[in-house]
Amino acid sequence: MTPRAYATATSCVAGTPLSFVATGAATVVVTDAISGLVMHRSPVSSPAWTLDVPVSWPSSLYRATFAAAGAVPRIDSAGDDEAWFVVRSAMPVAPILVSVPFATWQAYNRAGEPSEGLYYAEEPTRATAVTFDRPGGGPPPERWEEPLLRWLRAAGYPVEFCSNLDLHLDPAVLDGRRALIVCAHDEYWTWEQRDAVEAFVRRGGNLAVLGANTAWWQMRLEDGGRTMVCHRDATTDPMSTVDPGRVTVEWSSAPVNRPENAMTGVSFRRGAGAWGDGMAVIGQETFTARFASHWVFDGTGVSDGDKFGQGTLGYETDAADIVDVDGVPRATGRDGTPPSFVVLATADLRHWRRYGQGGAATMGVFDLGAGTVFTAATVNWGKGLSDPVVDRITRNVLDRFTSGGARDGWTVIGPPAELHALTSCDGAFYAVAADGGLRAREACPQNLPWRRVGEAPALLCIASPREAAGAMLQGLWALTTTGRLCYRDPAFDAVPWTDVTAAPPGAHSLALCDAGLFAATSDDTLWYLPALELRTGAWRPIGTAGGALALTTLGGRLYGITAADRIVSRPPVAAPHPFTDVCDAAGSRTLAAHAGRLVGAGPGTPLRHRLPPLS
């Protein structure tokens, strides 16, 4: 008789025992599923057997294969005679934690068998609850996760592993980590698991979703985590009348209404799927680069419009709702995708409709609280790592996520342009171009092109207040080469500029903050004009301008760029106060602020932004 086995937990800590149930078994072989090394071989006391996991075992995914008396345990294919588990480090130190999707494996276990599998979705005899205390529940035959797990170890990244159930049962596994990797096909998530991951990112962790169809279904865990519940139908889930937010339907569906886009940026709702015979198309598709100057593409050599990653797409992909803005994709947010989402690469997979579900793939990155999320948007990302571009993208993401992350340095958000003045107002960036035209584009991190929206005759600088104050309207204010202060409404129409008052002699930079106007002059003097005295032109000197060649305001402070390529700052007080050094200016010569970030540009330099360093 062929043995039937399962582990009583999907993970354990090195140095602790793990129990198994193995009926009909006489021997067992335990292998490290990533390296292929045999770690343990022994007889089995059936049906209960305990493995004393040595403290020296590395954190990894393991496979215990059982055999009957006189048989040799096989290690080359899946079956009910094996049990999969993760060993977690006794003293976690690796900055990267990899989550293994045991819940999805269990959902597919015995798919289609009446009352045994959670699949298929509309089959009336499908199970609504399945137990982990049964044979099976290992990875699917395609082994979507395996190539990535092996690549991580071969690439030398210090990683540790957990079961995705650990994120629900013991969210402290995330403590001290810099990055969490969700890989391949992690389709089933609990409310607690999602809360833990989102909180981790919001407080400064980073999330790399190197997969797709992620967090598609909400599930619940019962019996101490040994039973997985997913009705897939709100009308049959008793939680509908108790706590509607915990109903086990798609995350984006009523009554849950918590789209997975808020965590991943994308969703299978806009994605594509090719199943059965249609899986042959996986090897034919490619991504198209849409923002090649972004840090994710550093060192890849690709340009916008280049194809890469053939074989990476499939068999399911995720995507965001996007629109074309002058040839550049922009996430609309109508599907729950955060406004900070940046489209990096896309794939048009509408023709997959003939194979299953037509749609798209949207590779992207966005900020969530103090952390960053990258999504590869394809189940097959690991199998594409032989492509040098996919390899380098993955390294760029992990290297950044394990170093300074979002707060470390400048990020490109737009193409180079000949700009010498910049500000933000009413959700848009406005800039003065070298040809005297006024340019504008949405104030977002996507690489959108500039549009000419009017004239900027003889303007030296432009600025805008965060809040209106008296006669200081929330619009575009500018200093001219003729020594005047003028105003324009913030519009993409060609509205006129209005002369307001005189500027300080030699003024070249302007900032508006705390109901006042600040101007820097060529003799390095900072001047101040209260908003209530705007029409008088009675500017008064208030000390040194700190060498600032351009000014802006952010969070109630003045910021400037110096000739030494530094950002300096001081409070907006109408009295002498020194400027302090903040950070490098990355070659920018003009400065603005938007949504908590400094924004820099200059002649021929890309538009960039960054968070101001913490003091």
What does this 3D model show about the protein?
The protein is elongated, with a radius of gyration of 29 Å. By secondary structure, the protein is mainly beta. A nine-stranded mixed beta sheet has the order 11-9-12-14-26-25-23-19-20, with helices on both faces. Helices cover 8% and strands 39% of the residues. The mean pLDDT is 94.
DSSP helix fraction = under 10%
Query: What is the typical, i.e. mean, pLDDT?
Result: 94
Percent strand equals 35-45%
Q: What's the total number of strands?
A: 44
Radius of gyration, rounded?
Answer: 29 Å
By DSSP (H or I, 4+ residues per run), the number of helices equals 6
pLDDT under 50 segments (min length 5)? none
Largest sheet, in brief, is: 9 strands, mixed
Through-space gap between termini: 68 Å
Strand order within the widest sheet?
Answer: 11-9-12-14-26-25-23-19-20
Structural class: mainly beta
* Gross morphology: elongated
